[in-house]
Amino acid sequence: MELIRCLIWLLAGVGVFIVGMNFMGDALEKSAGSGMKKFLGKISNNRFSGLGVGAGVTAIIQSSSATSVMVIGLVSAGVMTLTQATPILLGAKIGTTITGLLVSLKNDYFNMLMYLFAFAGIMMGFSKKEKMKLMGNLIGGLGLIFVGLEIMGSDNAFGNDQIRSMFMSASKSVMTGGVRFIAPLLLVLIGIFFTALIQSSSAATGVIITMVGAGALTLDLAIFLVIGANVGTCVTALLAAVGGRTNAKRVALIHLTFNAVGAVLFTAAMWIFKDEMVKFLTTIFPNDNDVMSVQMRVSLFHVIFNVTNALIMLPFVKQLVKFSETVIKDKKTEDETRSLRFVDDNLLAMPSVALGQVKKEMDYMLGLVEENMNYSFNAIETRSKVNGEKVVENEAIIDFTNGALTRFLIKLSSTIEGSDEVIIGSYFHVLNDLERIGDHAENFYEIGAEMADKELVFSEAAVEELKGMCGVVSQMFEISKDAFENLNGERLHELTELEDKVDEMKKTLTARHFARLAEGNCSVDHSPYFSSTVVGLERVADHLVNVGYSIVNPIGSEKENA
């Protein structure tokens, strides 16, 4: 019964610790959104730069698992290559050591301050001001981390004399009994399993550090548990890659490979030189009566392990990439046209970056819409069925992109706050406008193709009129595209003037068409095709105005901003 009670307290402590980590990590990520973009903007083929970016990002968000998931999303979305991603993953292992060092700072005075932080942070979380809530999550999360550690180290958990004695007896049995030879391997496996279970190497390391500080675990055993914990964290990345694209799976494999190789090398080295490592760590922090000093020994080993592993594996980045490509081959039947090019659900872990990738995807969609408009104008003018398959293919991609991006934006909107909410609202409107323009483009092509099948020909005057109207709409497309892609509002007034011109052309062309019908210069058979084209072009012009003005007005209307 005592064991069950202590286990419940331990789980409660781990739970509070993880909640604190999540609160603090989310607050840091949101407050450092622009900084994250700068970090990622420094991504290059320089492996040392990538190592620094990985360490920096992980130090900010306090989670190597989150960083690995972000990297999987960025590679899958085509933002970076496998060669660029690998050093970042290596750097993430260095960045995660900050948590261990933070955990080791635990002492009575520091704990009292953290308790105040936890209380103050929770109170600030009730504020209606966004910045105040963000600050509350940050300091409250930091405080909860130490509340969780205190629960784990209390007399109700590892601090209990009976529990400490039980763990110490088990430790002695392992190191002196018949399983002595395989003990390090068993401990590494326990570390892997425990970390995989709670999905956080930071939390696992925190538990190990707390156990050593409470006297429930000896340093020589903790060393191997820490090694295992660093392999167990790969489970998060593996889960993120399940069902993902080929490159996402390769990133997860690279992540697993270098962690596993590092664990094997260090396990072998510590198997032989365990006593020397313990002596070295004890020499650096010699005070056995000081809990902080005892805990810092574990944290220092955690730093040594991750830094050494990263530096050993850094020269082999190309080999790691080649290995992943050999094991996970490209799927020849993979249908890339039905997947988003720049967006992946793993990017939801980094909202500021995800929003930028959505913009790239919409720029690509806009290019497809423009391409179909050009094909359809040509079909109307020449009554040609050329490029019909391309129009259908582009329209299918446009429809897919509209649906997939809409679903992604709905998910993203729950993680975005402040001015970015306005941008997301604007993107919803633009997606709808682009999809409608794409539908009109397909309709125009079908008009030209149907007339070709029926051998119907517009009069020379009608062809020239439609050419003129198509030309004005093409001008509008150029301005709208420049405005949206480059956030350039300098020519928006021209867009409004051209839209007014299209409205007038619709009236004029309709009147002239009926005049030609009355004079017998145009066949009644042509009337529905001509009228549908003119009406469709006028509606396309309206949608283009919305797209262009979306950069200054979320609902895309020029009336409030003209």
Quick gist of this model?
With 562 residues, the protein is mostly helical. The chain has helices at 2-31, 33-41, 47-61, 64-76, 82-95, 97-103, 108-124, 130-153, 161-176, 183-198, 201-213, 219-232, 234-241, 246-284, 291-313, 317-327, 351-382, 388-413, 419-454, 460-486, 492-519, 527-549.
Q: What labels describe this entry?
A:
single chain; 562 residues; mainly alpha; Methane Monooxygenase Hydroxylase, Chain G, domain 1; 0% strand
Proportion of helical residues: over 70%
Judged by helices, strands and strand pairing, the structural class is mainly alpha
Overall mean pLDDT: 81
Give the SSE order as H and E letters. HHHHHHHHHHHHHHHHHHHHHH
Number of helices: 22
What gross morphology would you assign? elongated
Number of strands: 0
Integer count of domains: 2
Rg calc = 31 Å
Major β-sheet profile: none
